[in-house]
Structures are given as C-alpha cells and as structure tokens.
Design a protein that fits this description.
Elements: E1 2-7, H1 13-17, E2 27-40, E3 51-59, E4 69-75, E5 84-87, E6 92-98, E7 103-110, E8 119-124, E9 142-153, H2 157-163, H3 185-189, H4 206-238
Parallel strand pairs: 1-9
Antiparallel strand pairs: 2-3, 2-9, 3-6, 4-5, 4-7, 7-8
Length: 248
C-alpha cells in the first residue's frame, strides 16, 4: 500500500516574524516504510510465544530517518508489559515475542524545525501466512510493509540546509540564487545509510521510486509556475492592464 501524507507546520507569532526565512513553493518529501517481520520459532514455540517479530519505521532504502523524526511511539496490545513503547533514537523499531495479531498505533514526532504536528499511522501486526492451512517456516518470515511519503511544505532555510543532499530526504531543484546557511555537520553524519540485519527481507518498493520521480517533476513545474507568476506580477505593476478590443 502506498500513501502520500502532507504535513503542515502550524503558524504562530514567532513563525510569522520569521516568515522571511520560509521558502514558499518548495516541498520536501521523506519516503518511509513501516511494517513488521515475523519469524515462527519452530520447536522453540510455545502456546503464548510462537513468533518473534520486529516492528519498524525505516527509510525507503533503509536510510536513517533520525534527521527528520525525533521520536516514535508504538502502542501495543494491553496484554504486553509496558504496552506504550517510546523510541527516542534511530533505528525506530522494537522486537517482541507473542502469538496473536493485532492493530498497532504508531505516532511519529518530528524535530522542531520540521513540523510541530505528530503523524499517526496504523499497522496490523501479521504473524501468519494468508493461507492459514499452509505450513509455517522458521527460515522464511512473514513480511508486511506499507509505503508512505511525508510531504513537508514551506521548509525553513535552516531545515533545508540541514537535510539538503541527505539520502533519506527528497529535495527539489533549488533556485540558483538561493544561499543556504551552513549545515549542522554533526547531525548530518548521524543520518548516513546503515545496513539493517533484516534488510534481505524488506520489500523493494519499485513503485516508490516512480512516485519520487513524479513528485520531483511536479515540484519543478510548480517552481516554473511560481517564477512566471512573479514575473507577471512585476510587469503588472509597471503597466496598466490593456482594455479588451471590444471596448470603445
């Protein structure tokens, strides 16, 4: 399943004063994948501990999302000890053992310069194959994943400088005259791509790549339209509008 979620940062007095540093007409995309990988425990399985599973939020090609996401909160079934799990650093994931499937609420919190509103996601934990009569395997896990693209509008110059050229973030072509402030080098280093131990089981979202290409093309068109509007507004301020030819 593929989604596209647009996040809008709330306006307040401090942001209004800082509006000159907001980049209108620019959208930043962050492709994410969330889901679970579940292994049947085979001979080690018991009535209430039949599977070991890992629930996660990851970049579309396993990038570290810590450059954008500050915290992930997973709400498990109430039968688990401490069902509200908070992960304050990447990788945003947790592992557990159990026997039952249930819906998990996931809440993502972003860094202050990204968005002040959390993103709510829902994932149905899957442990068993669709064909319930089929044999269980300890070698091949059950994998269920969903793709989403977080779209961030009107980014600040500081945020854009921080994520520019970051592998987890899609940034459109920027105006040639845009001078970004120096990036926070330390924070960008933490976002380098990592190899995940479960990566061999992750879904290859080829459709996601096409979506990103379409998004980049759309953003370029929006940039051209914005420049044309600015040019037309400048021309309109210098000349009076022409009267229609039917008027005498």
């Amino acid at each position: 399943m593929s989604l596209r979620t647009k996040m809008i940062k709330s306006s307040d007095d401090s942001e209004a004063k800082d509006s000159a540093q907001k980049l209108k007409g620019i959208e930043i995309s962050v492709p994410i994948v969330y889901g679970n990988v579940a292994f049947w425990l085979g001979k080690k399985a018991s009535e209430y501990q039949s599977h070991k599973w890992t629930l996660y939020i990851r970049g579309a090609t396993n990038e570290d999302l810590g450059v954008v996401i500050k915290r992930a909160v997973f709400q498990l079934h109430t039968s688990f000890n401490n069902p509200t799990r908070v992960v304050d650093a990447p990788p945003f994931e947790l592992s557990e053992c159990g026997w039952g499937e249930f819906e998990i609420a996931i809440t993502l919190y972003f860094h202050n310069d990204v968005c002040d509103k959390p993103l709510h996601l829902y994932h149905h934990l899957k442990l068993y194959p669709e064909d319930e009569s089929g044999p269980l395997s300890t070698k091949k896990p059950i994998v269920v994943e969903s793709y989403d693209e977080i779209v961030l509008s009107k980014p600040s110059e500081a945020f854009l400088a921080r994520v520019h050229n970051h592998p987890a973030v899609g940034v459109p072509r920027l105006p040639a005259d845009l001078a970004l402030p120096p990036a926070d080098v330390d924070r960008r280093k933490r976002g380098d791509t990592k190899d995940h131990p479960l990566s061999q089981w992750f879904t290859n979202f080829s459709e996601a790549d096409e979506l990103l290409k379409l998004t980049a093309a759309r953003q370029q068109v929006q940039g051209h339209i914005a420049r044309l509007r600015r040019q037309l507004s400048m021309v309109g301020g210098q000349h009076q509008p022409l009267k229609p030819a039917t008027e005498f």
